[in-house]
Prior knowledge:
- By secondary structure, this protein is mainly beta.
- The chain has a single domain (6-71), classed as SH3 type barrels, CATH 2.30.30.
- The protein is 5% helix and 53% strand.
- It contains 1 helix and 7 strands; from the N terminus they run E-E-E-E-H-E-E-E.
- The strands form 2 sheets. It has a 5-stranded antiparallel sheet with strand order 4-3-2-1-7. A two-stranded antiparallel sheet has the order 5-6.
- The radius of gyration is 12 Å and the shape is globular.
- The chain starts with 5 loop residues before the first strand and ends with a strand.
- The mean pLDDT is 96.
Amino acid sequence: xxxxxxxxxxxxxxEYRVHFVAKHSETLEKFVVYETLYDNPESKFWxxxxxxxxxxxxxxxxxxxxxxxxxxx
Length: 73
């Protein structure tokens, strides 16, 4: 499960910049560190377990990737 830095599109259409994968200091669980590329009043930066970043979701009757790599920066 390698995640490279760059721009990713969420299955609902908005784009995010992935910075890197970090590890939890106690459990060593991997988290993707990313930021919104749109105005989000909740937060600009987010983390998500790598398993949830790379999983598939059901959307409009199809199974699609949660996030799709768009391009490098």
